[in-house]
Amino acid sequence: MAVKFFGQFLVEKGLVSRDSLLAAIELQEKNNLKLGEMALSMGYITPADIERAHNAQMSKDMKLGDLLVEMGILSATQLNGVIARQKETHLYIGEALVQVGAFSAADLQVHLDAFKADQARYVSNGIELPVNLPNNAIWEMTADLTYKMITRVLDLQFRTEKCAVISSIAPACMLAAMDFSGDVNARYMISVSEGMQKSIARAILSEPSVENEPVEVLEDTVMEFANVVCGNVAAKASQMGIVMEINPPETLHPPQEGLPVPNGFTALSFPIHIMDGDRMELILLIKD
Amino acid sequence: MKRVLVVDDSLSVARQLEKIIAESGDFTCVGHAKNGAEAIRMNHSEDPEIICMDMNMPGMDGLTALRTLSVMDKQVKVVMVTSLGGVGDKFTEALKLGAKNVISKPFEAEGVLRILREL
After folding, report:
1. Contact B101/A153, CB-based, under 8 Å?
2. Cys bridge to A16: A10, A131, B76, B90, which one at CB 3.0-4.6 A?
3. DSSP 8-state symbol, A156
4. Do both A117 and A144 map to the same domain?
């Protein structure tokens, strides 16, 4: 019930053993050459060139291939040739599992179909953002996945409002916040009303009533909802080639006057109206 | 009944797992640790057969604790529980460090118990 990659789906379902998957990953690691290794095997560069480029990478935030071209070590045509060879010779995890004898080629297709059906619910629907930001596709996917998790995890019906840029974060019962780092620098926040906090707690704890639960448990359930969404966002982002690290969630209590948006950040608000009148809001603070 | 230690900084996830374990009929929960260091201490004091451990915790995280546990205790079977399960590198790293499987959040009782019963 989460965003997964194929090998994980197979192990979780008990369709292949952990040891078979590790053997297949080892085979992939031997077979799938990194860009520098492939350029080396094609005779375009030397080990000393790779070392020079890696040293240069410490002061320049560039991909190895682009850097090799900029340094005049590889031509753009050679770089394209290396990337094309990487694609042609890439061994996918399913094929690697067949090669290590985990299952037959015919079984592979059956498992791939089951995997696609399982993941179909996480295919992103288009969400329009009001501004152009770095990695716009990631933020559209984040909002979309949040909506999907409200349905799947909380089992709530809701209506969304159009996304808007905001200059301050409105007061609310509480906010659950998580920071993204890696290829992006942003903060994910879920703001909830008191009633919404209880709805989330009932769903997460699978309890019909949470009236006697301490505040720390109620707040923890909202943080856990944010944690589940952000982990799945990071998984989806990794499928899109973007590295997103997440830090443990924290609780915030905005004052009556609201919280200002920090300088250098754009704040996007996605208001969400729950059918019984409760309200939640997804807020993304994205570094410009 | 097999003895299970739950390790998670989230009270609500620990509650969810403890409920699933208690209602299974096959497993019993022997305690709840809130971070990796506490997990290592409770592995010694409670002697669980299975540890269900969160990957992303403040203080000592799950992967660091897994690395230590795989050296200190060859018998205990560790299953990681994480919302980051879908990130291929994290999943592979957990298996390479000795985790028997990874439970992705959000999870359902049926999926958790299937994984625990297969250990």
Report:
1. no
2. A10
3. -
4. no
Number of folded domains that form chain A = 2
Among A16, A183, A227, A240, the strongest candidate for a mutation testing the B interface, having the largest count of B CBs within 10 A, is: A227
Tell me how close the Cα of A46 comes to any Cα of chain B, in angstroms: 28
pLDDT tens-digit map of A158-195: 888 889 999 999 888 899 999 999 999 999 999 999 99
Domains detected in chain B: 2-117 (3.40.50.2300)
Q: Is A123 a residue whose pLDDT tops 80?
A: no
Of B2, B4, B8, B3, nearest in space to B65 by CA? B8
Q: Is A238 close to B89, i.e. CB distance below 8 A? A: yes
Same domain, A106 and A213: no
